[in-house]
Every structure is written in structure tokens, then in C-alpha cells.
């Protein structure tokens, strides 16, 4: 009983010494490893944290830039719309001005042809002699004279009568 106990104690002691050695080494090793690895881990997790931070920052910047991009795209869209509107307005005003020009041209040619017609149709009175032309009923005609076109009178070098013009 006692012997067994001693033996047990002895073997226990022996084992304990070995165990203590092992445990101490193991603890040292683990502590060392843990220290090193925790240092590394700390460093790594710091780096990861930093990277995560910069990642977050970059993500925030990307979001920000995307918003800016969206805004710029909207501005571009607005500018394009405005440009289209201006182009459309220019087109309209061009159309309007060109049609105005057409109207002006046609009215000009109309008035020109009217003038020609008027000139062709405008008659004056000339005496049997003299170098003047008169309105109808000019007293210098004294009931004489005949009607010719103003154009013809002018082409003959006639001047307007000072009495009736
Ligand atoms: Zn006259």
C-alpha cells in the first residue's frame, strides 16, 4: 500500500518533472509562438484594418465619384438637351428666316414686277411738240397731246412738266 503509493508518487513525480519540462517548453514555445504570431497577427490585422479602411475609403470615394459621374452625366444630358433645343430653335429660326426671305424675295419680285407693270401701265400726256410729259388735264396741253407710257416718255428723254408735276 505504502510502497505502491510511493511508487505511484515516484512515478508521478517522475512524470511530473518530465511533464513540467515539456509543459514549460511547450508554454514557452506557445508563448513565444503566440507572442510572435500574435505580433504578426496584430500586425496583419492592423494591415487588414488599414486595408479595410482604405478599401472603405476607396469604396466611399467610388460612391462619391459615381455620384459625381451621375451628376456630370446628368449635366451632359442637360447640355445635350439644351444643345438639341438650340439646334431645333436655330433650325426653326433658319426655316423662319429662310421662309421670310422667300416671302421677302417673292414680295420683292412681285413689287418689282408691279413696278414694271406700273411703269408699263403708267401713262403720261405729251404735247405734239415739246420735251416734257404731263399729267392728264395739264393746262399747258390745252386739250392737245396724246397719251404715251411713262417708260416711253422717259426713253425719249422727256422731263416732267413743272406746271403739273
Ligand atoms: Zn404739264
Bound molecules: zinc ion
Fraction of residues in H or I helices: over 70%
**Main sheet characteristics:** 2 strands, antiparallel
**Topology pattern, helix = H, strand = E:** HEEEHE
Q: What is the molecular shape? A: rod-shaped
Binned strand content:
5-15%
- Termini gap: 169 Å
Total count of strands = 4
Provide the gyration radius in Å: 59 Å
Summed up, the helix count is 2
Strand order of the largest sheet: 1-3
Structural class by sheet pairing and helices: mainly alpha
Low-confidence stretches: none
**Overall residue-averaged pLDDT value:** 77
Describe, in short, the structure shown:
This protein has 165 residues and is mostly helical. Among the domains are: 39-88; 123-160, no CATH class.
Tell me what the structure shows.
The protein is mostly helical and 165 residues long. Among the domains are: 39-88; 123-160, no CATH class. It contains two helices and four strands, in the order αβββαβ. The chain starts with a helix and ends in a 5-residue tail after the last strand. The model has no long low-confidence stretch (mean pLDDT 77). Zinc ion (ZN) is lined by residues 134, 138, 140, 161, 163-164. Zinc ion (ZN) binds at residues 134, 138, 140, 161, 163-164.
Amino acid at each position: 500500500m505504502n510502497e505502491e503509493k510511493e511508487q505511484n508518487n515516484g512515478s508521478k513525480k517522475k512524470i511530473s518533472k518530465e511533464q513540467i519540462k515539456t509543459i514549460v517548453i511547450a508554454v514557452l514555445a506557445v508563448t513565444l509562438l503566440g507572442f510572435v504570431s500574435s505580433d504578426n497577427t496584430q500586425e496583419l490585422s492592423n494591415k487588414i484594418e488599414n486595408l479595410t479602411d482604405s478599401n472603405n475609403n476607396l469604396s466611399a470615394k467610388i460612391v462619391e465619384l459615381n455620384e459625381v459621374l451621375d451628376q456630370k452625366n446628368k449635366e451632359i444630358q442637360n447640355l445635350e438637351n439644351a444643345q438639341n433645343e438650340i439646334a431645333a430653335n436655330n433650325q426653326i429660326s433658319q426655316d423662319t428666316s429662310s421662309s421670310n426671305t422667300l416671302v421677302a424675295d417673292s414680295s420683292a419680285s412681285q413689287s418689282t414686277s408691279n413696278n414694271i407693270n406700273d411703269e408699263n401701265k403708267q401713262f403720261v400726256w405729251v404735247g405734239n411738240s415739246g420735251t416734257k410729259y404731263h399729267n392728264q388735264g395739264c393746262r399747258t396741253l390745252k386739250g392737245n397731246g396724246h397719251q404715251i407710257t411713262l417708260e416711253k416718255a422717259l426713253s425719249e428723254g422727256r422731263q416732267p412738266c413743272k406746271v403739273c408735276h
